[in-house]
UniProtKB/TrEMBL annotation:
Segments forming domain Starch synthase catalytic: 2-231
This protein's name: Glycogen synthase
NCBIfam families the UniProt entry points to: glgA
Stored InterPro entries: Glyco_trans_1 (IPR001296), GS/SS (IPR011835), Starch_synth_cat_dom (IPR013534)
Ranges where the Glycosyl transferase family domain occurs: 278-442
Species, as recorded: Sphingobacterium arenae
Glycosyltransferase in keyword set: yes
Function noted in UniProt: Synthesizes alpha-1,4-glucan chains using ADP-glucose.
Substrates-to-products reaction catalysed: [(1->4)-alpha-D-glucosyl](n) + ADP-alpha-D-glucose = [(1->4)-alpha-D-glucosyl](n+1) + ADP + H(+)
UniProt: ADP-alpha-D-glucose binding residues: 15
Organism lineage: Bacteria, Pseudomonadati, Bacteroidota, Sphingobacteriia, Sphingobacteriales
Length: 470
């Protein structure tokens, strides 16, 4: 079976969030299970593309409206990623440094999807399944069925994976002239509330859609940024498949990015050594429990709650704790945290930005990780944390609810709170502090969570079973 994963993110090419981790791991596990899985992404002017060996394998051109666009397809030559990676470069459109935040994103992603289909057609490549990841490539299920130039792909099955349904790629109908010529009788498949909505079009036209956790699939029926009725009406072709993690890359026993390796049996001493080194580096007290937040400063992540949570935690003299923040995004959140760094110089420190190696160090050193999310389709940070013996403190929603069981439940190994509020987060952190003070109990929980299997192997099999049914 030949499957192509189409995405605008893929680790290590370009990573903004969990989408990149999924696309950078799932195809490799599928190939190990006998599936011929490829990844196709836009070209970015980034270190990976500059440093690695890429070969040009195809060129072509097409009109986007009145503009003629020329594209080139490149492939990573060494095969070091464990799957074939193809990049589509279009001068002026798909050759930039950043993934997002350009004013002509609609034009970029339309060009990417058009070039992708144009290349497949000219090269006589016909996969069995195209797995499209998020709204940036949400027009593909429509175009393969209704675009005049690509009728040969009508029977190719399309699976659409919803990583975050809050972002839908809305664009004015004035952009319709940029699309490949299509059957205009089918315009309603593109429309939602008077706009072209790629996410809505994908759900309407795909053969099946998946969400990145079972819990998130259920939540989309009730909270999908205006698409609740659509997800409900198309529920028969929806599947919840929880994301996995790459347990070769995220493995404290072999992680090249942490100073001291450890496994389940040596986790107590191993984490202690990593914590000591980390706290010395960042001026924190290694004898205190270390809580961390890793991620974007975004409202959906509950990051706006962080400043108040920090103040309330430190305002209680009984809370003996250090906090480390790794993230970027909302500048107001960052400014508020910077102010608190001055107020609590020996208890709080932060790194503003994205830093892959530092994230590994933090997972190995921290005792707890906080995820107060308002929306969390799956969440990977809690999975990475548990692999490294770091206790998750999470809001019970989406994939967090699916993957973290509270210590008060049978066989529990984390701390779960019901609402994304400062009060719930603080009280649960205090509950965790009381719990981890009991070393024997803490070590039992740590071993339990490190033994959990969140590898991609199980999830990859579920995707393959879905492809086979289609």
């Amino acid at each position: 079976m030949h499957v192509i994963h189409l995405s605008v993110e893929c680790f290590p090419l370009a990573k903004v969030g969990g989408l990149a981790d999924v696309v950078g791991a799932l195809p490799r596990y599928q190939r190990e299970l006998g599936i011929d899985a490829w990844v196709v992404c836009p070209y970015y002017d980034r270190p990976f593309t500059r440093d690695e060996n890429f070969l040009s394998i195809a060129k072509g051109s097409f009109f986007q409206g009145s503009e003629e666009l020329h594209y080139e397809v490149l492939t990573e030559a060494t095969g070091s990623l464990g799957f074939p990676l193809y990049l589509i470069r279009i001068p002026g459109k798909l050759d930039r440094q950043e993934v997002y935040c350009y004013p002509d994103e609609a034009e970029q992603w339309i060009a990417f999807q058009h070039a992708f289909l144009h290349w497949l057609k000219n090269s006589q490549i016909k996969p069995d399944v195209i797995n499209c990841h998020d709204h940036h490539v949400g027009l593909i299920p429509f175009l393969t069925k209704h675009a005049d130039d690509f009728t040969e792909f009508e029977k190719v099955k399309t699976v659409f994976t919803v990583h975050n349904g809050q972002y839908q790629g809305w664009m004015s109908w004035s952009k319709a002239i940029l699309l490949p010529r299509f059957d205009t009788w089918k315009w309603g498949l593109l429309d939602w509330d008077g706009l072209i909505n790629p996410l809505a079009a994908a759900i309407k036209c795909c053969d099946a859609f998946t969400t990145v956790s079972v819990g998130y699939l259920q939540e989309l029926y009730e909270q999908a940024n205006g698409l609740e009725s659509l997800f409900s009406s198309e529920a028969a072709k929806g599947y919840g498949i929880v994301n996995g993690i790459d347990d070769v890359y995220w493995n404290p026993a072999a992680d090249k990015l942490i100073p001291f390796h450890y496994d389940i049996e040596s986790s107590k001493s191993g984490k202690s050594k990593n914590k000591k080194a980390f706290c010395e580096k960042y001026g924190l007290d290694e004898t205190l429990p270390l809580l961390t937040y890793i991620g974007r400063f975004a409202t959906e992540k509950g990051a706006d709650l962080l400043p108040r949570i920090i103040v309330d935690i430190f305002s209680n003299p009984d809370n003996k704790i250090s906090i480390f923040i790794l993230g970027s995004g909302d500048m107001q959140v960052q400014t508020d945290i910077q102010t608190l760094l001055v107020a609590y110089p020996n208890q709080l420190t932060a790194f503003f930005g994205y830093h892959e190696a530092l994230a590994h160090e933090v997972y190995a050193a921290a005792d707890m990780i906080l995820m107060p999310s308002r929306v969390e389709p799956c969440g990977l940070n809690q999975l990475y944390a548990m692999k490294y013996g770091t206790i998750p403190i999470v809001r019970g929603i989406g994939g967090l609810k699916d993957t973290v069981r509270d210590v008060n439940e049978k066989d529990g190994y984390g701390f779960v709170f019901p609402d994304a509020t400062t009060e719930d987060a603080v009280s649960t952190i205090e509950r965790a502090l009381s719990y981890i003070g009991q070393q024997e109990q803490m070590q039992r929980v740590r071993k339990k969570e490190m033994e959990l299997d969140f590898s991609w192997d199980k999830s990859a099999r579920k995707y393959i079973n879905l492809y086979s049914r289609l």
